[in-house]
Amino acid sequence: MPAWDHPRSLAAARILVELGVERGLPANECLFGTGLSVADLGNVEMQVEAWQELTIARNLIAHLGDTPGLGADAGRRYTYGSLGIWGYALLSSPSVREVIRLGVRYAELSFAFIKPIIAENPQRTVVIFDDAEIPLDVRAFFVERELAKIATLLPLAIGARRGVHAETSFTGDRAAALRSRLGELELRSGEMQHQLVFDTAILDTKLPQSDPVVARALEQQCTELLELRQKRRGTAGRVRSLVLAELDTSPTVEDIAARIHMDERTLRRRLASEGTTYRELLDEVRSTIAAQLLTVDGLTLNDIAGRLGYHDAAAFSRAYRRWTGTAPRHTRSAQLERQRL
User: Fold this and answer.
1) Using CA atoms, how far apart are residues 107 and 10, in angstroms rounded to an integer?
2) 8-210 adopts what CATH topology?
3) CA–CA gap between residue 67 and residue 61 (Å, rounded)
4) Rounded-to-integer distance, Cα 266 and Cα 203, Å
């Protein structure tokens, strides 16, 4: 599975929606196809799956265009508060070397879709932003976002200093748009890969907000949070994520077992130990997405059926009655009536 396929807080999704709304795209259209509601954005305890954040980015690109700089504009909105405990651990780090270590070690607590890889030699330490696993249609957007996020947050942690620069394989308009949004961080374009480069001479420099005791305590909290997220997700969470991402293909339990490299019987057994079944998870995902799609004016029941992996509207209607006890047409009529009031 991709390195970025892990649960995350709603902060990044909220930032993307705010960007879309400021550009004229209503929040509900930003969230289309995610199973999330506008009300969910205010739930500080809620976690989302990576595919939901990917879907929001795709909605932005579909409506606003794949404009150079759009991803960078999202990245510039980040604060250390939006990174949570992990962000404050970075701020308290005693040295640049520790900022790099914590940044890579706890990447799963971030919203990054790139995979950070450290490479070192006597002259410099490089953090490579491996983008190979990011879907091509949103790859530039999320690389832009990551570089702009780093350019915004890094000076607050390590201070304004020489000895660090960014490199990107972008050229032309995209490189120019990104460079204009990176502030004082130097960007070298047309390189082999996207990466952040630190001169060895600055790695052990004491940082302005250094507090080793606090940093150790916060790192321990990062470890506990990471373990908790992974535990909460479990097998059911992984299955739910894959079903959501491939819903229109109507994936079978055999398909999902193959995706996570697990024997079908083992998968069924693990789901049972977590108190659920594949059928229940599939129904849960379909009913959640159906509730959202029924609010979209212009989508026919056949359209909705196709997006949920059903052959026709009749099959979808039968399933919807089983989930809710009512027909989807009645639900849609009631929702439209509420909207008119």
Assistant:
1) 16
2) H-NOX domain (3.90.1520)
3) 8
4) 47
Tens-digit pLDDT profile for residues 61-103: 999 999 999 999 999 999 988 888 889 999 999 999 999 999 9
Give 46's pLDDT tier (boundaries 50, 70, 90).
Answer: confident
185 phi, psi to nearest 5 deg: -75, 120
If we measure between CA atoms, which residue out of 114, 106, 116, 112 comes closest to residue 85?
Answer: 106
- The whole-angstrom separation of Cα 312 and Cα 116 is 44
- Which residues lie across from 130 on neighbouring strands? 115
Q: CA nearest 142: which of 237, 55, 80? A: 55
Paired with 187 in beta bridges are 166
Which letter does DSSP use for residue 95 in this model? Answer: B
**Interval 185-237: pLDDT, tens:** 999 999 999 999 999 999 998 888 889 899 899 999 999 888 777 666 678 87
Domain 232-340 in CATH: superfamily? Homeodomain-like (1.10.10.60)
> In the block, which residue shows the tokens 């890579």?
104
Parallel/antiparallel/unpaired status of strands 164-167 and 187-188: parallel
Q: What are phi and psi of 59, to 5 degrees?
A: -65, -40
Pairing of strands 164-167, 195-199: antiparallel
Rounded Cα gap, residues 149 and 12, in angstroms: 11
**Do 8-210 and 232-340 fold alike per CATH?**
no
Is residue 166 within 8 Å of 150, Cβ to Cβ?
Answer: yes
Secondary structure (3-state) at 277: coil
* 64: nearest Cα among 19, 12, 111: 19
Question: What is the residue extent of each domain of the chain?
Answer: 8-210, 232-340
Structure tokens at 7: 């649960």
The answer to whether residues 37 and 31 touch, using CB atoms and an 8 Å cutoff, is yes
